[in-house]
Write a structure and sequence with these properties.
Blueprint lengths: L22 H12 L2 E2 L11 H12 L13 H15 L9 E4 L1 H13 L5 E6 L3 H10 L2 E6 L1 E2 L7 E2 L2 H7 L4 E7 L11 H13 L3 E5 L25 E6 H5 L7 E4 L2 H11 L8 H11 L3 H24 L3 E3 L6 E5 L8 H12 L1 E2 L1 E2 L7 H4 L2 E5 L4 H11 L3
Parallel strand pairs: 1-13, 3-4, 3-7, 7-8, 8-9
Antiparallel strand pairs: 2-10, 5-6, 9-10, 11-12, 12-15, 14-15
Length: 397
């Protein structure tokens, strides 16, 4: 008897067939191979606060977290997260039933979408989007529906959301809105009016919302981070995702969290337990202490990143890029067409040899690759001397 054997079928299941090695791994490997300055992947080149690092060392030495921590996260961290949300935004969460610690924000996103999305459900996401969004929607069997942020017609310094386009994207099959603010990769921070319109739409159409707010402490100029859960009607339908990695510059610790109603938190926890079960035991104790740092830490962190943003943005403009000055995150999106280029993939793959710098082509964050083709993202979460050296190298363009 003959027939197709299992080896004849592709090993990767069809839901994930479009996803290969992430662009971050590819470009970081290229940085190592060429000795280029890595402004591609978003990780700092210095550690965060010494007292937070020492808190992790102390937890290790005292044997706290060296074995499995509690599934939802250690009580100290869940309480610290609840206190943070109350202190910063006036949002009250029960640390026992409404807070869940995850292995970074990436697991929180995956667990939330796997928990809340059924095969065939539509998920509306702001495009360009962090690449794990598309993969997580695919794993859940959902259908992603992009709503594209576009350069503002009157003010080319930013990308903006078309609220009419967002409303038109919602259909009878829409289950969930996936919102990211401050937005990676464009640096857009959604305004109060935009968030109010999103909240009204979610309530009107009875939609769930997952909101990725990992860059909540990195907003610049006149921008203000406003959590969507604080808007009328949103507390019970919003899963808010946060992360210690971006705020405290310990991205390798992989400590993230979810805050939501008891029902939504329980749903996400049901999935999370079968992904990693638990993680980052000793680091959870350190992050609990980090969240209790005084407001002066968060303000100094923001000022430091603002100075770095300005160094990189100014240098990129002088090198010939069109620069979209970000109102949040630690990324700058640029347009390469003023340099006579139009293919971000080809540009980024050649850039390490041409100028000794690594960047990320924004097209990887788009369903419509042509729409993202001329845009390239640079990270400024690096030391000022690193950014100045990168800028100097880019002048060769």
């Amino acid at each position: 008897m003959s027939g197709m054997t299992s080896s004849a079928r592709p090993h990767l299941n069809r839901r994930l067939a479009e996803f290969g090695t992430t662009i971050f791994a590819e470009m970081s490997a290229l940085a190592v191979a060429t000795g280029a300055i890595n402004l591609g992947q978003g990780f700092p080149d210095t550690d965060g606060p010494e007292e937070v690092r020492e808190a992790a060392v102390r937890a290790l030495r005292e044997g706290r977290g060296n074995q499995y921590p509690p599934g939802p996260g250690i009580p100290e961290l869940r309480t610290a997260i609840a206190v943070h949300q109350q202190r910063r935004y006036g949002l009250s969460y029960d640390p026992d039933t409404e807070v869940l610690v995850t292995a970074g924000a990436t697991e929180a996103i995956a667990a939330a979408l796997l928990a809340l999305v059924e095969p065939g459900d539509e998920v509306v996401a702001l495009e360009p989007y962090y690449d794990s969004y598309a993969a997580s929607i695919a794993m859940a069997g959902g259908t992603r529906v992009p709503v594209t942020l576009r350069p503002h017609v009157e003010e080319r310094a930013s990308f903006r959301l078309d609220l009419d386009e967002l409303r038109s994207a919602v259909t009878g099959r829409t289950r969930l809105l996936l919102i990211n603010t401050p937005h990676n990769p464009t640096g857009t921070v959604l305004t109060r009016a935009e968030l109010a319109a999103i909240a009204e739409l979610a309530v009107e159409r009875d939609l769930l919302v997952v909101t990725d707010e990992v860059y909540e402490h990195l907003v610049f100029d006149d921008a203000e981070h406003l959590p969507l859960a604080a808007f009328p009607g949103m507390r019970e339908r919003t899963v808010t995702i946060g992360s210690a990695g971006k705020t405290f510059s310990f991205t390798g610790w992989k400590v993230g969290w979810v805050t939501a109603s008891p029902e939504l938190t329980a749903a996400v926890r049901s999935v999370k337990q079968f992904l990693t079960y638990v993680s980052s035991g000793p680091f959870q104790y350190a992050v609990a202490e980090a969240l209790a740092l005084p407001d002066s830490y968060f303000e100094e962190f923001r000022r430091s990143m603002l100075a770095r943003r300005d160094i990189l943005a100014r240098g990129l403009a002088e090198a010939g890029f069109e620069v979209f000055r970000p109102a949040g995150t630690y990324f700058v999106t640029t347009d390469i067409r003023p340099l006579g280029e139009k293919d971000g993939f080809a540009f980024c793959r050649a850039l390490p040899q041409r100028a000794g710098v690594v960047a990320i082509p924004n097209a990887v964050f788009y369903d419509d690759r042509e729409a993202g083709a001329p845009f390239v993202r640079f990270a400024f979460c690096k030391r000022e001397e690193t950014l100045r050296e990168a800028v100097e190298r880019l002048r060769a363009l």
